Prior knowledge:
Low-confidence stretches: 1-7, 39-47, 62-102, 1063-1102, 1133-1140, 1155-1161, 1187-1206
Helix content: 55-70%
Amino acid sequence: MGKAGRVRSGVAGKLKRWKKGHSSDSNPRIRRHREAARSRFFSQPTGKSDLTVDALKLHNDLQSGSLSMERKAEGSQLHMEEDEEENGLLLTEKSGGTFLSGLSDCTNVTFSKVQRFWESNSAAHKEICAVLAAVTEVIRSQGGAETETEYFAALMTTFEAVESAESLAAVAYLLNLVMKRVPSPVLIKKFSDTSKAFMDIMGSHANTGGSPALRWVLSCLAVLLRKQDLMAWSYPSTLQIYHGLLSFTVHTKPKVRKAAQLGVCSILKGSDFMFGDDAPPYHPAAQSTAKFCIQEIEKCGGSKEATTTLHVLTLLKDLLPCFPVSVVKSCCETLLRVITLSHVLITACAMQAFHGLFNSKPKPSALTAELNAQIITALYDYLPNENDLQPLLAWLTVMEKAHINLASLQIDLCFGHLPRLFSTAMNCFLSVHSQVVSTTAQMLKALLMECIAPHIADIGQVSSAATSGPVSSLCKMFRVVEEGLSYKFHASWVFVLQVLRVFFDVAGKWAHPIMKKCLQSLSSLRHSPHFPYMGELDQVVGAAVQSMGPEIVLQAVPLEIDGTEKNCEFPQSWLIPVIRDHVRNAELGFFARYFLPLAATLKNKATELTQAGRNLEAKIYDTLQWQIWTMLPGFCTKPTDVAASFKGIARTLGLAISDRPDLRLTVCQALRTLINKGCETDIDRGEVSRFAKNFLPILFNVYSQQPGTGENTTYRLPVLETIKAYLAITDQQMVCGFLEKASEKLTDPASSEFTKNSILDLIVAMVPYADEHTMSRTYCIIRPFLESKEHGMQKKAYRVLEEILGGQRDPCQEFVSKNLEELKTTLLGSLKSASSPAKRPRLKCLIHIVSQLTADHEEFITCLVPEVIICTREVSVVARKNAYALVAEIGQAFLRFHQDQQDAIQKYLALMYAGLTGSVTMISCTVLALTRLLFEFKDHMSVEVVEQLLENVCLLLSSRTREVVKAALGFIKVVLFIMDIKLLSKHLQYMMEAIGNIKDDMRRHFRTKLKNIFTKLIRKFGFELVRSMLPEEHHKVLVNIRKAEARTKKQKALKEAASVDEDAVPVLQKGNSIEELLADSDDEEEDEKPVKGLKKQARQKSLAWLKEGEGDEPLNFLDANVAQRVLATKPNLNKDAKLKHNFQFASDGRLIIKEDEEEIQSKGIDEMAELMQEVGIQSKKAHKQRFREGDDEAMETSSELQYRAGGSGIHRPLARKPGFGAEYKSKKGKGDVKQKGRPDPYSYVPLIKANLNRRKKAKMQGQFKGLVKAARKGAQAGCRRRKRER
């Protein structure tokens, strides 16, 4: 499109404009290029074409990859013929090679990096490839095996011969790759010559401006020095070469400097002799390296241009742990001296060096406990101001690592230094920066977990009487943290409470004598009005309950509830839910002697108040006693006195189960918790098992007792679960006795149907724990029920048999082996009478039977196949799942019966194919079973069998029955998912024809399934191929799929691009690593444009600020803490940084954030879920239930929120506004009512464009007809009323 506006004079006449009304014409008058192309379209070329048969064959070979580019001296043509017109273009294998031929067929994996990161536009990379190709050609011409040693020798020869800088850089890069894999003896032997060549290059390029070869030469020299043995380092020449490398660590070019620093670190840390059996404590060059660093710092440390100092400090960050202790001390003294310069960047780098030293946890040979403690003491002199953000964060992080390292060296010395750090950290809670406060809390919690928790047991009981040692230090630390509850720290209470919670967790068991006062302070704080951190305070007290035990907590903070209160305020009742949620590892006896009498007293008080007619107060006391009982499951979680205390509480628990329906669920939960989590020793398990004769009859009676009309029956399942848990620890003879009594009651004619069902449930629970003789008798009793016409009884009888057959205990295995033939006969005989509800346990029984059969029982398995196939269409989801599992189990049985795996599956398939000749239901069921069979045993099927199976199912796609077509489409979907694409491509045409032959009504009904299949086909074979194989009626769907795929791909790319942009935006929140904390952040300078003409030195002055004295007090430069007045953060700087994000908003303005993993994996999970549903492994009901559970969790989370929207903006009310005319609605009857002082209500028909749709004409007529009828009826009623009024 041309540029708008007037054209210059003299040009207007040359322009060709459209005539008026012809601006939309698409065919121009002048068509010179079109005519020229059309004239040559059918004409023959005049000259000889380069497209010859040989050239075409060469092109095809290159595309297929069959052409080998071997370098042969004989038989290959070295040049093209000069006379192309006479002889044509003759191409041979040799002429098809390029300068990359030696690279493309290089067999040494060392140079795979060159091939993998190929950049066609990079001249340096092309030079590297050319050098590698030439060197490879030379090695092959001399008959070499292309080993690393050969490449090293050839490259070194080339290295000494090349002259251009580009070739030198390419050879150095390849040497850097290959030298890492050259054997050490080769490098040791060639050390003198190789190092001389490298040193010459280093000397000649040291002062040049950024030679590309220098960085690779430095890397090669580092590898060469790293491979030398310990003896070589005793020679002065080796140290001289090393110092040459060391001098480049302060080079002005970043890449050169980085290569030298990495090389020095690799030498001192990773030399080969440092990993041997007789390795020295430190590298021989460590001392000279440290001396070099100290000299460089002292030489230029005090100058304003401290670039060299920064480079040396960066090097020391990695090297300090490698130095001997004497050198480390000198380096640390130097670091402390440079911190006094108050240069922000130098201070940050020095802190990084200290952090690297402590974080690496060096050995005592590098850092002794005394030196560690001295560094800690010295660092207190360089404490930044509490409002100086970045330096203070770095100081806190360094001190944390220093104390943790000191604890690993000498714990007593660490305990001596911790109180001072805790006292200093508490002052940081007064900082105005929230990040300082949170970092301080994290540091204190880390110190408690790393330094105190591992050694608190060795300290023993802590008391306030101690005056020295670790006990005294621990008391001082806790008192310091306890002071954080004062009002001075009210802005940081939430972080102080977090530290207190960790303190209680770590030391509560041993230091509770000094913590009782803190608990009282917490209780008083909770009673203060409008206290904002109730939840955090409850967690602190809960941590005390978990570590100290409820008895000690209640001694410090009494419950103040005894049943004699004059009012019902109960100010300390908040302790009950806290104890309930956190009590663990407590004394069960304490609950028996304190809480049980209290609960009984409160229950009696409630009863008295109910009799007196004071129902509200009675309800309060009844709720309190119930809350006390809810503590019992917590007391039963790993109690410490089960053997001594359970006997004192067992009778009360039994009476509660039988006589107190309101406590039944709680007591049953407590018993299950005690059995599963409390009986950790045989003594405890034996003590609880001793009362089985008392608890089990009570539980049996409660479960088998028929509830009254309107009575809640939710207790029955928990009672049954409690019975199963208790039976697991009950003596076998006792279980057999209970089982015999239950069997007698089952056969008693006087027993009601409810009683028989309950007894069968109890037999199901007991039979796995009985002996073989009792199992046999029970089997004889329940066998008639297998053919019962009562479906519930029949199902429960099969459940008994399922528990026997599936039991892992020896009596169960013995019973199955003895009665296998009878079981087979019984299961086959009861097939005709098996009801649909009984299919699930029946199929489970068959699974257990089939898994134990041998080849002699193949006839029995053959008889099961029709039943299994039919059951794949059962109504019950679990029954279908069991049917599919039995299909797979029968296949495993056939594999066990036959040596030839493929022959075994063919026999199984032959049995399955018989179902394809049956009814419509049988055919669809057979296809479903074949789908699962293919999914499970595809590796055991030959190609011919899979092809035959696919062809048979494709024939069924033309069926007129929806069930058959649905099953066949499911089979096709599974085939697309699991089959190899090469095998699938052979039958693609056949599959497409079968899908295209689907009837129109079937195609419309299964359009969703077909769209899913087409999507998978397009992803595998491409749009054009699939489109060409399908009839035209499917093309519209294919185009829609292509658009949807493109749209999805585009949205994904946009989302990824947005996430990349978000990552590029600098955020204010820093990470936990020292590098992130000490990152050079010039955020303060970003808002101010630099003034032109300022020098770098002047700009660096703005990196530090001086904090003036408070009020009228002048700044004292002689003060010892004057260093704290130098700030790296500009004071009183408030920034409003707004970051863009890609999150969605809820209706009330809240952000909706989804996890990245869910977004990434959702597509794959959905496809796998579909496949699992097709083969019967996973049901759609379970898939929906999983999403429903996720929604329930979200609703539970949202229901806990106390926030209610209201007001304006994001606090606007979320409820829908009442509809128009809602104020006229009648509250009692239908229709509208008149209101005084308001207009009369009228109804209007809205003018909606959709009402003009011709297809909705009849619907609209009906609506308007009813509307007119109602209006006419209302008008007539109004006329009659007016007449009466007249």
